[in-house]
Amino acid sequence: MAGAVDLSALKSRAEAANSAAQSPGGGDGCAAGGSHPAIIEVTEANFQAEVVERSLQVPVVVDLWATWCEPCKQLSPALEKLAREGNGAWVLAKVDVDANPRIAQLFQVQSVPMVIAVAGGQPVDGFAGAQPEPQLREWINSLLNALRDQLPGIRAAEEGGAGAEAEEEPEDPRFTAAEDALEKGDYAAAQAAYQQILDSEPNNEQAKAALVQVRFMERAEQADPAAIERADAAPDDIDAQIAAADAEVAFDKADEGFARLIQTVKRTSGDDRDRVRTHLVELFEIFPEGDERVAKARRNLASALF
Q1: Boundaries of each Thioredoxin domain copy (predicted)?
Q2: Per-residue CA distances from 23 to 62, 82, 84, 304 (Å)
């Protein structure tokens, strides 16, 4: 497998991901002069990182405003108040449309204020004009409820505060059993152990990440180099492209595997596109946090989807 998968740091990686999700602004996520990590001043220069990539973890609510817009002066403070109360479950991205015309063009802004919710790198909902705070709160809650099972950062932020206590907890015997099975090469037993955790705790991010890793390890052990040649000869065969990408990642050619699926995303639509995107995101999950190849591929995927 040429080191494609690093299970030794699985727990620390999952905990680090949860910690980052609980604080979407991070150490330097807030623009200069920002007043809260969940409120970000977005420009054309940081749009990709602060809106598209960030929306892979939590919803990003884009507030498109202008200095001359009177309704904006009512809407923006209300959104900022709700963002502060959200504890990082969502992020408010403020965009001055006059200073950032390309972002305004991207969202096809015809008037301000305009609010667009972005999740998973794509616009999912929005409205134009000022709204009273109760209606904004209802809209935000509806958005979070709809996306909670899709974006890991929402629930992590909502359940924040348990992290410090978790550090003092003893080793979970359920994970120990799964890891013991994996050390013996018993992929089926390891998957069953992680799945048993998820059956009782569907939102256990650590078990989710581990299950993705183990499933890939089993596929990688059976990877066929000929799958790449078959996929090159049949670019419209979704199954062939997925099998080839698995083989490329297994043979330490992650860049090629990621690029293959991103190109397939560009060529497809509907259910096929969703299937390829989901598989690619699962491949991202087998790599350690901060892997540059994954970061680059996430940006390219977001561009392909947006």
Answers
A1: 30-145
A2: 18, 16, 12, 27
